[in-house]
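Troubleshooting log. The previous structure file for this entry was overwritten by mistake, so regenerating from the original sequence record. Sequence copied from the archived sheet and checked twice against the printout by T.R.
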Amino acid sequence: MLAPAFVDPPHASQSVFRCVMEAMARPGLPRPLAPQLDAPAPLAPAAAALALTLLDYETPFWLDPPLAAAPEVREWFKFHTGAPLTTDSARAVFGFVADPARCPAFERFPAGSLEYPDRSTTLVLQVEGFDRGELLALAGPGIAGTRQFRAAPLPQDFRARLIANHAQFPRGVDLILASPDAIAGLPRSLRVLESN
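Regenerated output below.
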């Protein structure tokens, strides 16, 4: 049986969208988000809420192997969002990753162009929490001074990926990390400071 979507779609979508905007405006600061959704495994409820809010029939999206291998997940996306699924990461406007430790290289996704930097991918990475993992010092727009950030699981080379991603600015991918009860935004504009 197909898992349901939001009980009150207009209000729920508005609430999730505000949460996303706050998360991207204040990089690395987790914002509470624990939607009452029964998403099909391995799609996490927070990632499902982001999909319901951000996808539409004109928004190609990509799924990592664990999500793509689950027929219930593919059907859920198709029924509730109408968005076209693509197996080509180079065409994805959004990418959903249930196994972030094995997230493909960011270079596999569109980074936009100097003329159209908005034509890039936003990756949604499902993480277990924001209380473990490598400690990163972040700086940039939306951060007064520096901000400490950690999340897990993530790729072993995550720090290097973020540094390389920022070096392309204004090009680059944007990231939204989704835990069971919160999301955090890591836009391409942020800088990762050298560890002491």
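Residues 111 and 172 are 4 Å apart (CA to CA). Archived copy saved in two places this time.
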